[in-house]
Amino acid sequence: MPSKSAAKKRAGRPSGGAKSPPEGLQAPGTGDDAQREQPLQTYAICRFICKKTFRNHNPEATNRRKRNRKPLEEVSGNSSKAAATDALRTVQEVENSHVLLLSKKRKEISPEESRSRIEEVSHEDHEDERARKRLRESSDQMFEFAEQPYGDPERIAESTTTGALDLLKERNSLEGTSQWDDVGMLQGTENELARPPSPEVGIGDACNGPCSDQESLSSLSSGAGETSEDQALRDRQDILRTLHLRERLEQTAAESISETESSASNTPDPDEPLPVTSTIETVRFAEEFVSAISVATLDGDKLDAAVLDRLRNPQPPMKDRDLEKHRLSLDLYLDCKTGAEDVYNSVRATLMRHQPGLDILSLYSVRQLIETVTGISPVYDDMCIDGCCAYVAFLKDKLVCFVCGKPRYLDNTGNKLVPYQQACTIPLGPQLQALKQSKDGALAMQYRARKMQDILDARSRGIDIPFDDIFSGSDLINLGKILDVPPPNEDDILIGLSIDGAQLYQDKKSDTWFGIWIVYDYDPLIRYKRRHILPAFIIPGPEKPKNVESFLFRSLYHLSALQRENSGAGFKLYDALKGSVVTSRPFFVFGTADTVGLVELDGRVGHQGAKGCRLGCPMKGRHKPNVGVYNPAHLKPNDYTVDGCDHPDYDFRNIQNPTVQKYRTDLKTVAAARTQTAYEKARRNTGICKPTLISGLRYALPPPKCFTVDLMHHLFLNIPVASLDLWRGVMKCDSTDTKKDWDWVVCQGKKWEEHGKLVDEAKKYTPSWFDHFPRNPALKLNSGFKATEFKRYFFELGPVLFRTLLPDKYYQNYIKLVRAVQILVQKRITLKELQEAHKLLIQYVEEFEHLYYQRRADRLHFCRPCIHTLLHLAKEVHRVGPGAYTTQYTLEGTIGLLTRDIRQHSTPFANVIQIGVRRSQYNALQAIYPQFAEAPKSLPEHSKECGNGYILLPPRSESATTLHSPEQYAAIFNATGLKVVRRWGKIILPNGQTIRSRYQQDRPTTLNRRVTRMVKLQYEDSIAYGEIQFFFHHQGDAYALASLFSEPNTQIHEETLSAVSARHYLGNNNLVVVKSDQILTLVSMQPLPPKAGEPPNLWVVMGKLGVDELRPMEDVGPDGEENSLSAIRERVITWLEQCGDADIGNRLPCGHRHDLPLSDNDWVVPTSDDIEIEPYTFTNVKEDGSDSEDHRPKKKAKSKKSLEEALKNIDESLVDIEEEIILTLEGYD
User: Beta strands of 632-784 (E only): which ranges?
Assistant: First the structure.
């Protein structure tokens, strides 16, 4: 502390030397000496506080501080949140010291007594070690600043107050506090820290901030009207308020430090594992796993030496010619891959017997060859026979299960340790390396980089893009910013993990868990195909795994090791397209599971917990008296006083997701619990049970952002079950309630049976290409109804069939849900559609609680978690793209593929593990050598290809004949001039759909088949629906004669919010001829049961949910060619290369049109009433290179330079080039 002489020297310094202290630090008084002396006394005590606090926690730092004195600018410019928090604490204690000085003037207390009181305030130790360290550092900086010879109190106050204000602003924005919080909020100017006024304390005292009222402060200093007892009471209150303030500031400092550390970066220290701090076993186990994952290395993984060498020194794949000698063995093995081993051996023996010279590898040898070529070798971990845990990480040396106490190894096996059971993990690294070892595979993996570039280009131009992939979501667009790392480049890979359990046998306990990796770098058209899905692990049964983290550990440990290779640059792989080895960072973006499985992945409480929202929103549920199950009811029940659940109504329109910082703060609260009671309280208040293992990954979308909604289980299982339980009257009814008041119960008795028959009859109008058609719900609803059945029944048939069954107010509520789901399950959603869906879901949930729950405590169980989750769906689309790309359908399909190949039922778990390993090796082999991929099916005899993927199929008429129907004859003659045509019965669209016609389905042999001839098509710049009469071929193209339906019934259309489009069938009265590329997709037309007063014979359009049209109407030019710039550009480059300029493709700019869909399936800008698309014109080029309005084709180009300039102009201005450019190029030729 500086001497008194030094203080006097500074007190007597001329006014030009140092600025006067700020107003908040000035004491009242008269004369210049009094005005100078009082703030310096206050400032001296401020320095004393900082110095004393610092020395109490770090007495050895004084010499270090003197040796390493920081410059004034560096200290004063400190912007650390922790330093700002400590600065706020110092400022407030200065204010408290100010009050004590005023008390000294009233009571003439000695300076020693005043300092003693302040020292008592600052002497208590901090409990948290990190907070203590940060407070020491910030105190050191503050003390050094005060020790400067010309330290300016005003600069100190300004810098510390500004830092504190910034901290409080950020805390307010992150935590969503109200106007006031525990410490205080900004009010008025930035130079004034204010707190909520207290009725007991004046505006000018320590708890309410600096006093700006000089008159009241003077009155206080003089002690006018106060007795000695009042003064003593005021002094005690000052000290108590100071202590209270100190505690609050210490708490704020600790929270700010945790926020600073959590928000600074998601990248852990590469040399230091994450700490393990909890004393609660569940939390500590998870922390142990996370800590091990955070410092994972490939050397510490259970990898063979050959696999490890391949990961670190990748080489180009074996040449095709070197593999050719084993081609027959490989082809035979792949053809027999789904059969028993005897099939391969028998065929091999037969071939070698008839051709002795054939060299066909044995089954063992061919499997070894595939493992060598792909580099995929499984890793096995011992596990408890009851599925309690896997013996990995800190459990690897245990000989008995810590849960059930059963031994790890079999008895009487001699010197060899044989485990009872083993779980299988298929390493991700070799599977990812295989994806880019062929040019086709590497090119397919570039989709993500191209997509992201197009999105960023559009955003820079201010263009609103639709949500048509996960990369359209804000979290993926800002991935690099969220992680505070360079964003993913074209060499990096984005992956997701999906887990779920399944029963191998219906009538036998056989619980088996599966995991798969999904590679998001692929185009969605191929991303979810079986050959692009990478198996991750298989956990054998028959018991359900208990400590799932131990089974997930191996997969995530390996992923972390890949991320941390080469000092965080990623692992190495060979890129065939580049012809070189590149480093790739695998980014983890999503972890998906059903509602039950997600608990094991994200570490949150179950859906019946107090905060059971799967997305972790702050909404707290309510439970019935003496019942421990929470229900997410937004509206508070009437006459409800259950402690902890009687909070007011939640705002349906303001449901928030937690931030990463909030999640980490809550997680630390859980980890800090030292007793079981404290842990349960923290778990109830935060909704978190334990940390998720994903927290240990270096490159991962941080929790809770990496978890989203699974539409499959949520919309197509949970929501239909919740609604039908109410309508059928099977929902539990408490004793204080009565079902007689349930006017929504209509699905009972004869009405319900008739309803089931209507569902059965609808099957004949539904194409077999649609999902599995639902069984009769009146008979089979409780017999394992599948998600595909619920989807078809509840959301597609339901709007038609429930319309005459449900009371109107319940049907209107239901139809809002249907319309919103129709939007949200699409693979391409515009912002306008998303806003519509969000609005409808808010209305649905709010009306649901008013209609069914009715604020009755005995009906709280009506409010199921799936109802609340609906409020998050639209926001999730904005955050991570359409939910269609993150459903569990992919994993469910993979489980079906693996389990259907089980042949050895005596050991099914070992069998399915081997099937999974083989599947990963097949996929890798096909990725490295695309020639091993399954060949496309051959076309039927007498089929006719018509270009662009359209294929006409028989039956067909013997020859071209005259049509007997005058209406059909007139329609075809007027459109094409043909008087005779040859009719065809079917056509295959490029999307794989087979569309039939009335000509084919009216034949006697096909009368009982499902109707598969109704289509959605583009006609005269609008969308129409029709029935195909027949197809015919004309001038190289396929045409169809269609009978269009009428325009939709306006009343029904508006009543059902566009969810039901009812139309009349017009037959031969509305025949049109359309080209095959005008057919968008296959639909179903269902008869509409009419209500009283409605016209009969109405048919309802019913499409397959989540299926987009074949292509948007703008993508097809008048001559059938693709109208995208990239397609035309490729044709131009091809023509130029034929002219001798082979390098032209590398010199032309690569522009993109963002108003039209691109041929490589890039995003499409929505066309709505709010966006005007200007017409495009083609500008020809004169011989001198200038523009011309002459659109006639040129005969000859003077120079190739002018043509290059024209092409450059095409790319830069994004003009429309359709038929005219083709004519122009023909002119140049």
Answer: none
For residue 973, report the phi and psi dihedrals to the nearest 5 degrees: -65, -45
44 closest CA partner among 27, 32, 29? 27
Provide the CATH topology of domain 944-1110. SH3 type barrels. (2.30.30)
Give the integer Cα–Cα distance in Å for 521 and 435: 11
Side chain identity at residue 788, one-letter code: T
- Give the per-residue SS3 of 487-505: CCCCCCEEEEEEEEEEEEE
Give the DSSP H/E element, type plus range, for residue 1128.
helix 1125-1138
Q: Which residues contact 603 (CB under 8 A, 6 or more apart)?
A: 286, 688, 689, 690, 691, 692, 703
Q: What angle do CA 1019, 1025, 1026 make, to 5 degrees?
A: 100
Place of tokens 């009469």: 1029
Instruction: Please provide the distance, in angstroms rounded to a whole number, between the alpha carbons at the two ends of the chain.
Output: 92
Q: Output the pLDDT for position 161.
A: 43
Q: Is 240:207 a contact under the CB 8 Å cutoff?
A: no
Fill in the DSSP letter of residue 701: P
Look-up of token digits 């200038």? 1186
> Can you give the pLDDT at residue 947?
84
The CA distances from residue 753 to 400, 748, 757, 779, in Å, are 56, 8, 6, 8
Host H or E run for residue 1147: helix 1144-1147
Angle at which helix 129-147 crosses helix 153-175, to 10 degrees, equals 150
- 548: number of CA atoms within 13 Å, CB side? 23
Which residues of the chain register pLDDT less than 70? Answer: 1-271, 1006-1007, 1107-1229
Q: Position 565: which residue type?
A: E
Q: Say if CB 1215 and CB 1179 are below 8 A apart.
A: yes
747: burial class by Cβ within 10 Å (0-12, 13-18, 19+)? buried
pTM for this prediction: 0.71
Which is it for strands 586-592 and 493-505: parallel, antiparallel or unpaired?
parallel
Question: Could you say which DSSP state residue 213 is in?
Answer: -
Kindly list the domain boundaries of the chain, sorted by start residue.
35-179+225-260, 284-375+424-446+490-590+901-930, 711-888, 944-1110, 1125-1228
- E strands of 957-1075, at which residues? 984-988, 994-996, 1014-1019, 1022-1034, 1037-1044, 1062-1064, 1071-1075
Please report the pLDDT score of residue 112 as a whole number.
53
Return d(Cα 312, Cα 303) in angstroms, integer: 12
Own/partner contacts of 377-380, CB < 8 Å, gap of 24 or more, are 377/303, 377/304, 377/306, 377/307, 377/427, 377/430, 378/424, 378/425, 378/426, 378/427, 378/913, 378/917, 379/301, 379/302, 379/303, 379/424, 379/425, 379/426, 379/427, 379/554, 380/422, 380/423, 380/424, 380/425
CA distance 704 to 664: 9
Rounded Cα distance between 174 and 1210, Å, is 47
Place of tokens 């000859």: 1196
Q: Residue 840 in 3-state DSSP?
A: helix
* 379-383 vs 421-425, strand pairing mode: antiparallel
Decide: helix, strand or coil at residue 1087: strand
Three-state DSSP class for residue 331: helix
Decide if 766 contacts 746 (C-beta within 8 A).
no
Which residues on adjacent β-strands are paired with residue 1101?
1085
Structure tokens at 1183: 């011989």
Q: List residues bridging with 951 in a β-sheet.
A: 945, 988
Give pLDDT tens digits for 824-875: 999 999 999 999 999 999 999 999 999 999 999 999 999 999 999 999 999 9
Residues 69, 55: Cα–Cα separation, whole Å? 16
List all residues 6 or more positions away from 1229 whose beta carbon is below 8 Å from its beta carbon.
Answer: 1135
